[in-house]
Amino acid sequence: MSKEKKIYLSEKDMPTQWYNIVADMPNKPLPPLHPVTKQPVTADALAPLFPMELIKQEVSSDRWIDIPEEVQDLYKIWRPTPLHRAYNLEKALGTTAKIYYKNESVSYAGSHKPNTAIPQAYYNYKEGTKHITTETGAGQWGSALSYACNHFGIDLKVFMVKVSYFQKPYRKMLMNTWGADVIASPSHLTEAGRKILAEHPDSPGSLGMAISEAVEMAMKDDNTKYALGSVLNHVLLHQTVIGLESLKQLEIAGDYPDIVIGCFGGGSNFAGISFPFLKGNFTEGKQTRVIAAEPASCPKLTRGQFQYDFGDTEGFTPLLPMYTLGHNFVPDNIHAGGLRYHGAGSIVSQLLKDNLIEAQSVKQLETFEAGVLFARTEGIIPAPESTHAIAVAIREALKAKEEGSSKNILFNLSGHGFIDMAAYDQYFSGNLQDHEVTDAEIKESLSQLDKIL
Ligand SMILES: *Cc1c(COP(=O)(O)O)cnc(C)c1O
């Protein structure tokens, strides 16, 4: 057994194909439905929004999909990412478990999001797209896509949730530095934005509203496409480089995980770290437990309903089969902005429905406690989103200690928290609170959905 603290792969051992879990799922995800006709959407209906190659990936059931060489080349700017053994954290917990983490914070944007930003910009460039619109919450997705679009000569407009636009100016500045145009949403640039502002002039915005604005602008212009940073099948697909690398790195360490954990917003980094290990469960008889870590204030997996729902507030997107709290649900303003999304991707939702994965929710104070312990033991300051995965890893490591068992735990460190230090500051000054949603609030929000399932 290796005693290394960090396991690196060489560039020549990087994956050359993405893994498409749909090929191995016992029950395939249900199809997306047209928002008006409620019939399964055709590839043609998606063509105004996405390049054809991404639409093909969205509906593909091929097990492996080649990563274009130009994309592999750009990945090499920061990939392969290191896999660490968290010896100091293990020691602090006194656990009998081994804790490994995959460090996706080393990318240019400081998170896993560039893994899909690069291929999305690439396929758009190949098909002649000149402009892309997108939305961003705290700004992680917008900054990942800004660099990627700039590299391929595509002009990018980012609708940034208004409250974050003013509270998190640094991410806006990152996007501007990489060449993107950033607009506070809701804005006067779109009908959706004008409608929301007419009713609520002081609206702080939400991801659902920003998606409506970005989608509307792309629908209305033939030269403009739209890009999404999570939820969709092709996004989850691109993120599987995380787990594929981890699998090889753990092989070098001589280990295989008993438990794999990822934090959960729309499901992309969770899918990235876990799908290659679920493949082991589906095709090689492995029995790895896979756990999604979500915030207690936005608990779609643990307390939501499996339903067809929209991805945005205005109902412009196709209806997706998902665990949801309802597209009008507005979660509390926790610091893990990337996890404040009402729904979940349809692949991950199907896996949860079939009991092939698990979910746990974590309250905000427990996540910061875990994040600070991680920072003080391993040195890296985690993003508020990533602290959810750390908190669940700590729960499982303490459980192993109680049982005296020697579990191998792997979690994904989805990003660093350098631009989120105000959140840590609030935690230290005692100004952070736990929020939990009541059953009545969830019921009320879900009652607004058309019941299709
Ligand atoms: C966006 C983001 C998330 C949540 O999104 P997923 O698609 O669920 O992965 C988690 N962590 C970080 C650092 C993010 O930027």
Give a written overview of the molecule.
By secondary structure, this protein is α/β, with parallel strands linked by helices. The chain has a domain at 6-13 and 68-110 and 234-446: Rossmann fold (3-Layer(aba) Sandwich), CATH 3.40.50. The chain is built from 19 helices and 15 strands. The strands form four sheets. It has a seven-stranded mixed beta sheet with strand order 1-4-5-15-10-11-14, sandwiched between helices. Strands 8-7-6-9 form a four-stranded parallel beta sheet, with helices on both faces. The chain has a two-stranded antiparallel ribbon with strand order 2-3. β10 (259-263), α13 (268-283) and β11 (289-295) form a beta-alpha-beta unit. α5 (114-126) packs parallel to α6 (140-151), α9 packs antiparallel against α10 (207-219) and α12 (241-253) packs across α13 (268-283). The longest helix is centred in the last third of the chain and has 18 residues, at 386-403. The relative contact order is 0.15. The mean pLDDT is 95. The structure holds pyridoxal-5'-phosphate. Pyridoxal-5'-phosphate binds next to α6 and α13.
SSE layout and pairing:
Blueprint: E1 6-7, E2 17-19, H1 43-46, H2 52-59, E3 64-66, H3 69-75, E4 83-85, H4 87-93, E5 98-103, H5 114-126, E6 131-136, H6 140-151, E7 155-161, H7 162-167, H8 169-177, E8 181-185, H9 191-199, H10 207-219, E9 224-226, H11 233-239, H12 241-253, E10 259-263, H13 268-283, E11 289-295, H14 300-303, E12 305-309, E13 320-324, H15 346-353, E14 358-362, H16 364-378, H17 386-403, E15 408-413, H18 421-428, H19 439-446
Parallel strand pairs: 5-15, 6-7, 6-9, 7-8, 10-11, 10-15, 11-14
Antiparallel strand pairs: 1-4, 2-3, 4-5, 12-13
Helix pairs in contact: 2-11, 3-5, 4-16, 5-6, 6-8, 9-10, 11-13, 12-13, 16-17
This protein binds pyridoxal-5'-phosphate (PLP).
